[in-house]
Request: fold
Amino acid sequence: MSDETNRMMPRLTAPVVIGPVVVWLVTTASLVAVPGLDSADAEIGGSPTLGSGGWWVALAVLTAQAVVLLERRSRPLAVLLVVAAASVVLAVSGAGDATSLASAAVLVAVWSAVTSTSLPRRASALAGALTGAGLLVALGTCLSQTSIGLPVGTAVLAGLAHGAGVIAAPALLAATVHARRDARAARTDLADAVEREQSAQIAAAIAQERTAMARELHDIAAHHLTGIAVMTGAVERQIDTDPAGAKESVRQVRTQSTAMLRELRGLVTLLRSPGQTEEASGQERLSQLASLVDEARRAGLEVSLSTLGAVSVTESVGPLAQLSAYRTAQECLANAARHAPGARCEVVLDARDPAAVVVTVRNGPPPVAPVGMPRRRGLGLVGMQERADLTDSTLEAGPTAEGGWQTRLRIPATATAEVAG
Reply:
C-alpha cells in the first residue's frame, strides 16, 4: 500500500484535483437542489427524493465519478468509458432526471482524453472511446427518460442527441486547443532549430571570410615587401654616390613598412585562428566595378553604374580597402538578385571628396514578393562589417522608404593612403 501511495501522490497535483472537486461539488449541489424543485412544482418530477435510497445511490455514483477522474491523465480513455458508464448505472438505479448529472464528469473526461492522446498515433483508439462513451451516455439518457414515462421513440432520440452533444462539443473544442498547442510547440522547435542553424551558418560565414582574407594577405605583404627589397637595394648603391637619394629611399622604406605593419596587425587580429593558410588569389579594385556591373547584367540583373569624380582618385585608397569596397558591392548585388528579383539596382562610386571614397548600392522593391523566402538575418552583412572595421571604414545598411535596400560604405582615404604608395 505504501508503494502504491507513493506512485499516486506525485500525480495528485492541484491541476489534477481541482477539476474532479469542482465537478463533485456542482453535481452534489444539483442533486440536493433538484428534489426540492420537484416538491415545489408538481409538473416537475422524476428525481429521487432527498435522503431516499435512490438518492444515496446517485450520490455514491457521482462521488465515484469524481474519484475516477483523478486518473484521467494517466489513463484518459479508460476513465472516459468508466465515467460514461455511470449514466447507465444511475438510470438503472432509478435516478430518473438526475441521470443527466453524470454528464458533467463526462465533459471533463472527454476534454482530458482528447488533449492527452497522441494524435494521429492513437486516433483510432480515441475515436472508439469517444463513440463508446457517447453510446453509454445515450443509453443512460434513454433509460432514464423511459422510466419517467416518455415514449420509447422520443426517449431514443433524446438519448442520441444528448450523447452526441455531451461528446462532440467538448471533443471539438479540445481538439482545437490540442492542435494549437501542438502547432505552438512545433513553431518553438522550428525557431530553435533555425536559430541553431543560423548560428552555425554565421560561424561558417565568418570562417569563410577569414579564409578569403588570409589568401589576400599574401598579395598585400608581397606588394610591400617587394618594394622594400627594391628600395633597400637602391640605398646600398646610393649611400656613397647619392646620400640625399639614399635618405629618400630610406624614408620610403619606412613609409612602406609602417603601412604594411598596420594592415598586417589588423589582419592578424582578425585571423587569429589556425589552419587559414591557402594559396593567394587576385585582388579586385574599385576600377573593376564596371566589370562587376557588366557581369551582374549578364546574369539578368537590371543594374546601372554611376561614377562621380575621377576614378583615379580611388587609388588613394589602399588595396585592402579597395577589395573591401569591391566585395561589398558584389555581395549587395547578389543579395538584390536573391531577395528582390526583378528590382532595379544602382551602384554609385563617389570619389568627389578627396578625404573619402563612398560606394553606395541601392535596389528598389521587387515587382513581386518572392515566395517561400524566409526573413532571415543576412550573413553577408557579417563579412561586410568585418571588412569595414578592418579598413576603418563606415558601413551603413538598411531599408529605404520605397521598400528597397541600400548599403553605403565610406572609406577614408587618409587612413589607407600610405598603402597605395
Summary: The radius of gyration is 41 Å.
